[in-house]
Amino acid sequence: MQAVVITDGNLEIVERPTPEPGPYDVVVSVRAAGINAADLLQRQGFYPAPAGSPVDIPGLEMAGVVSAVGDRVTEPLLGRRVCAIVGGGAQATHCLVPAEHLIFVPDDVSWAEAGGFAEAFTTAHDALVTQGHLVAGERVLVSGANGGVGTAAVQIAHALGAHVTAVTRTTQHHEQLRSLGADATITLDEVSSIDRVDLVLELVGAANLSQAQNVLAPRARIVVIGVGGGSRVEIDLRLIMGLRATLTGSTLRARSREEKADVIAQINQSLVPRWTDREIHVPVARSFELEEATLAYEYFAESGKFGKVLLRVDQ
Amino acid sequence: MQAVVITDGNLEIVERPTPEPGPYDVVVSVRAAGINAADLLQRQGFYPAPAGSPVDIPGLEMAGVVSAVGDRVTEPLLGRRVCAIVGGGAQATHCLVPAEHLIFVPDDVSWAEAGGFAEAFTTAHDALVTQGHLVAGERVLVSGANGGVGTAAVQIAHALGAHVTAVTRTTQHHEQLRSLGADATITLDEVSSIDRVDLVLELVGAANLSQAQNVLAPRARIVVIGVGGGSRVEIDLRLIMGLRATLTGSTLRARSREEKADVIAQINQSLVPRWTDREIHVPVARSFELEEATLAYEYFAESGKFGKVLLRVDQ
What we know:
The structure is a homodimer.
Chain A: E1 2-7, E2 10-15, E3 25-34, H1 37-43, E4 61-69, E5 81-85, E6 94-98, E7 103-104, H2 111-115, H3 118-131, E8 139-143, H4 148-159, E9 163-168, H5 174-180, E10 184-187, E11 197-202, H6 206-212, E12 216-224, E13 232-236, H7 237-243, E14 246-249, H8 257-276, E15 284-289, H9 293-301, E16 308-312
Parallel strand pairs in A: 8-9, 8-11, 9-10, 11-12, 12-14, 15-16
Antiparallel strand pairs in A: 1-2, 3-4, 3-6, 3-16, 4-5, 5-7
């Protein structure tokens, strides 16, 4: 197979052995792979791949067609359209995935869109629902709403019946965010003036959380899943105590195979039907050929884009 | 009745009408009332009493004998030895308490000890078990272990089968803390060298939490219930995410009558039997007459004491 490989901080296309599925795995013939902030960190030498994942092939998500199935897998998966999050190795022509981690892609969805679904929607659903205990009627602040996870979170929170305030650095994508279901769209300097919120999904980090902690409702939850805008933030503990608020955070990547399977089962059950009905979808900013990985990473790092950045694989 | 009353920041003994019980209340003839940090804040004009509590009579806990019972209370409570947390008004000869908030004091326990039980042990149990989800075998750091809540927390965590590390400013009370069940006793500068902990009970605030966040185990919980040592702390969000850690906090005082009743039911069920068996007890630093309230508050504010400070009521 061909794969994007990190060599001394550069991205090269290298020929590697096509993976063989273990007894409970499948191999996916990749059609599109998403780019995520973690890939850029990994390229810089931070955020190494977890044990069991390719050490130098980046990529946390892809979509494609199941091309090989492990001999202990009982479901008829061969040829199925799927997408998945993986510990690494997605930016290649073939990718190994545990069979129980597959998300089933609706027929009418394009490969580019499917390639950008798994990481963003799984992360957003886990953060809002599993960690954040979001229920209908609550008020949610999505901080950094214009990225992949942000646009997923706006759609999921809206679909679950929450009131969604989307926060972005500029007003550039406010109209698009409202079309995804945001009830209000604001910039960071406007956070302090909004009504109190029950849940903050923090995708940016310190600078935004500094503002958001001033608009917490009693029993509010702050779920931090992105710190690109700074990791160290001053928290007012007296405020946390008085409101009985909670600050938590997580990454999906470090979880066990079993924990990820639980998360994925929820996605297949609660989000895929909404995806099939086009109640949710993946906005695509731009897609590149696998060979254009360096260019694609540069584009991903730019501000101002809206939606996912993908690498296409023509097979 | 006679009551300690805050007048322009001073404490005076003032004659006030003895409270009449509402239909679901009792009046307790007070024998001893504990002093807590909140009383000192209230005296300074911060932390006002919640709605329904006397606005100018401090005191969050007391013990005594039930001397009057509301006409809708069905249990035979008259004459029972009880203690309770209240929204305020405990530092008086009589105190109004919802009947469902009574903790039943074992026969052999002195009034001074009983007067210092409710706030510390209820707070510590709620923080460790309800908020902190402590289970047997986990490692707990009690930060500020030498105060009332701290000594309660060390005993409760030990009784529940946890490994307890007690952190204090000096080594002065380390031997006493080990006799209460602490497995290890350290000073703040030693925190960074201990094995990772599953639960941090933070009773001091910013300075201690800055250290404690460096020794968190995966899925650790930080429960903040005291900020006397500073409220604003810099938190490393990347650390919280990587460990899937949680920071939360609470005060008991602001909770609803129903919520407090749930907390108290747990105390009567799980802690009073251990108190009866002397598996847990209340270390008493010193007790004062009600008339010596000013002196008692000054003593409470001093560092270096060990255990609760009480006001005695001779009736």
